[in-house]
Design a protein that fits this description.
This protein is mostly helical. It has 7 helices and no strands.
């Protein structure tokens, strides 16, 4: 008997979640490496610069279990959209505030998005992937994550140096809008 044709993986929904994930991480990695420079330029202390990452990471970690529960009880769509919307709103917030304390508060808020979107996106990929192609699906999903990591820091530094932080934050907003 002829071998059965494998179930399709690169479907429209799968490609959409991967593209949204690329936008999500690109929005994040555009800002991440230059945020310490931005806060230092606002007069932030070395401790405050360190808190930028700590606040973000702590909130992301704290949000993942509730995000999982919300996905199980309410579905993934609202959690995906909420996580991306948080990234969009945080980037807008960076445009509208000029104080270190406000930036630190925004980092807590921004971390909520990191707790929500990736948790929901991973569930979506697992649900969309044919059972016999889940490993391959996760590999492609990892590529979608890594594109933002590859391009974001380079573009972020380049834009911040040549066009300024305002242009960089606008770009992060635009990328999050594209992800939505």
């Amino acid at each position: 008997a002829p071998a059965s044709k494998p179930a399709p993986l690169l479907t429209r929904p799968f490609l959409c979640i991967c593209l949204a994930t690329t936008c999500f991480y690109l929005s994040f990695y555009l800002i991440l490496p230059v945020m310490p420079l931005y806060v230092a330029g606002l007069g932030g202390t070395p401790a405050q610069v360190g808190l930028l990452i700590g606040y973000f990471a702590a909130m992301a970690m704290l949000m993942r279990p509730p995000a999982g529960w919300l996905i199980d009880t309410r579905g993934h769509r609202a959690i995906l959209l909420a996580g991306m919307a948080v990234f969009l709103l945080a980037s807008i917030g960076y445009l509208t505030t000029g104080s270190v304390r406000a930036i630190l508060a925004l980092r807590l808020f921004h971390g909520i998005g990191m707790g929500l979107f990736p948790t929901a996106a991973t569930v979506v990929v697992a649900e969309l992937a044919p059972l016999d192609r889940r490993g391959e699906a996760m590999g492609w999903f990892g590529v979608a994550n890594s594109v933002g990591l590859l391009l974001g820091p380079l573009a972020g530094f380049w834009i911040a140096e040549r066009l300024g932080f305002v242009a960089l934050f606008f770009l992060a907003v635009a990328v999050a809008v594209a992800g939505l």
